[in-house]
Amino acid sequence: MPPRALQPGETIKEEVIIGEDGKKKVVRKIVKKVVKKSAPSASAPSAASSDPAPPSASSSSSAPAPASSRASVESLPAASAPAPQREAAGNSSAEPSSSPSSKHLKELQDELDSQRNVAGALAKKNEVLAKRAHELEQRVKELSSEPGGAAEAEAMRAEFQERLAAAERKVYALTKERDVLKREADRQGTASDALKEKEVLVEQVMAEGAKLSKTVSDLEAEKRRLKSALATAEADKESLESRLAAETAKCAALAEDKKRTEAELTKSSERTEAELGSQRARFESELARKEEELNRLRASSDEAQEAEKQTRFAEMLARERSMQEVVRELKEAGARRDSAAALREDALRRDLAEAEERCRMAEERHSQLAERLPEATRPLLRQIEAMQAESASRAEAWKVAEETMSRKLADAEASRALAEERMDIATAKLTEAKTHEASLAARLEESRREGAAVRHALEEARDEAAEARAKATAASEEAARDVEAATSRANQYTSAKEAMIEREAATLRSEVEMLRSQIERLKEEQSQQAASAAATLSAQNAASVAAAREAAAATVNGNSPSAGSTPRVWSGGGAKGSQESLEAQLREKDGEMAEYRRQVQALEKTRDSLAEELLASVSAGENAGKLELEASHLRRELAMIQSKFYSALELMGERDEQVDELKADLEEARTSYREQVDRLTTELATAKSMAAAS
Question: What residue ranges carry the coiled-coil annotation (predicted)?
Answer without folding.
Answer: 345-372
